Amino acid sequence: MTSPFRQVYSRRRVPRDGAQVGPWLETELLSVQRSVAPPRTFTVTAAYTATQSDGLILVDCTAAGVTVTIPDPVKSQGQRLNIKKIDATVNVVTIGGTVDNTLNPTIVTQYVSLELMSDGTSWWFV
Question: What architecture is domain 40-125?
Fold first, then answer.
């Protein structure tokens, strides 16, 4: 495990006689900032392939059934996706891929959502 501290050594001179004391140990905290955009929320009405920046995908199947293809779980470790059917038609939302060892799970009821998470190997319902 890497420490968030960096050790800095310096020598300090005593005036005129050239004697040195030290090394003195100074500890400096390194600040690491990472800018992370919030997951996207949007509506789809046709086939869509989810990306790593997606969060909530609202699916409107009014015109026809819609397939939302999920990304490779290996490239999406730790990602959460929420897929929700927002229309009242009999058309089906199909999740293109395998979740909990189920190939192409579906959503048939309005306002039902499925939350998925990748562990780096597979997608799971959470």
Answer: Sandwich (2.60)
All structural domains of the chain with their residue ranges: 40-125
Amino acid at 27: T
Identity of the amino acid at 58: L
Looking from the CA of 60 toward its CB, the CA atoms found within 13 Å total 6
Closest Cα partner for 58 from 80, 84, 32?
84
Q: What is the value of pTM for the model shown?
A: 0.71
CA gap 120, 114 in Å, rounded: 19
Q: What is the pLDDT of residue 1?
A: 45
Q: What is the mean pLDDT of the chain?
A: 83
